[in-house]
Design brief:
Blueprint (H helix, E strand, L loop, with lengths): L1 H6 L1 H11 L10 H13 L4 H12 L9 H16 L15 E6 L6 H14 L4 E4 L6 H14 L3 E2 L7 H15 L3 E5 L7 H18 L6 E7 L5 H13 L3 E5 L9 H9 L3 E5 L7 E3 L2 H9 L1
The protein binds guanosine-5'-diphosphate.
């Protein structure tokens, strides 16, 4: 919990910096409200969230003046209202097994690390886990996932660089079914440079999966790098279209000042947020707690 708060410190500090000078004004007039709204937008929270907080502030009376504590409290409450409906842990509940979880996102967003963290989390919950190295485009991605599979102690299905990712997914489902493994977590290519290729590749994976189990993939989780700020939002847009995203995991929330984008994403897309990444280790995936997160962001 402390690490989570520490992770959001730069985000809440930036919010504080942006709001400085607005506290303790005598009157909450239109100009002050405008400035607060701008400060919230500059903190990556998004225009809709900022507008919502503005309306809330305008409706409040501040008997002690516009104190920093009072403003931060209202910001926290409004953020929590936005985050609460989307907080949804990734549950293993598919029947028949395996539950197939596709992990999508641009290269460098933290996909491989997130797969390892999720695998580790499910193992701790006593589920059987199999990984599939479906990003066959990059040899490094296959190698890195193998290293993680070893480290967390789970089997992995992989093929050669440049191989057919849908064949690997096919083998993965076969193996998981034969061995009664609960979940198959699939890495996928993150080449957004060529949207059409990526779309075709994901479509092929879906076709192959669908033949084995019409309900698969059960989850399509988009991994987002919080440090990219507003870029994360355009990635949601694109991946919703090419991959049929069912939920989000935001990574690298440790030490970025751009953590506000988590709120903007929740507000704009309403997609489930399964967890957040706050470090590079296998234990650094946290369940997404709206109250704690809202308070960490608001400071
Ligand atoms: P991929 O290309 O999407 O598979 O990304 P990787 O999983 O290889 O991650 C890219 C880099 O980000 C690596 O150096 C990871 O250690 C790092 N990384 C991943 N998740 C986090 C996180 O939550 N916090 C921090 N600080 N670094 C992370």
């Amino acid at each position: 919990l402390d690490r989570l708060q520490a992770g959001f410190r730069k985000t809440s500090e930036r919010l504080g910096d942006n709001l400085t000078g607005l506290f303790n004004r005598a009157a909450l007039d239109e100009q002050t409200l405008d400035e607060i709204e701008e400060a919230l937008i500059a903190s990556d929270l998004g225009p809709a969230t900022a507008g919502r907080i503005r309306v809330r502030l305008a409706g409040e009376t501040f008997p002690l003046g516009l104190t920093e504590t009072a403003v931060r409290e209202i910001v926290a409450e409004e953020i929590e209202k936005i985050l609460a409906p989307v907080a949804q842990p990734l549950e293993i509940d598919a029947f028949p097994r395996p539950q197939v979880i596709l992990i999508v996102g641009v290269n460098g967003s933290g996909k491989t690390t997130t797969i390892a963290k999720l695998g580790h989390l499910f193992l701790e919950q006593d589920y059987g886990v199999l990984l599939a190295a479906g990003d066959t485009f990059r040899a490094a991605a296959i190698g890195q996932l193998k290293v993680w599979a070893d480290r967390i102690g789970v089997p992995i299905i992989s093929g050669p660089e440049g191989g057919d990712s849908s064949a690997i997914v096919f083998d993965g489902v076969k193996k998981a079914t034969a061995e009664g493994i609960d979940t198959l977590i699939v890495d996928t290519a993150g080449r957004l440079q060529n949207k059409k290729d990526l779309m075709d590749e994901l479509a092929k994976i879906r076709r192959v999966l669908g033949r084995l189990n019409p309900a698969a993939p059960h989850d399509v989780v988009l991994v987002l790098d919080a440090t990219t700020g507003q870029n994360a939002l355009s990635q949601i847009e694109v991946f919703k279209e090419v991959a049929g995203v069912t939920g989000l995991i935001m990574t690298k929330l440790d030490g970025t000042a751009r953590g506000g984008v988590l709120v903007a994403a929740a507000e704009r897309y309403g997609l489930p947020i399964h967890a957040i990444g706050i470090g590079e280790g296998m234990n650094d995936l946290r369940p997404f707690d709206p109250r704690v997160t809202a308070r960490a962001i608001a400071g």
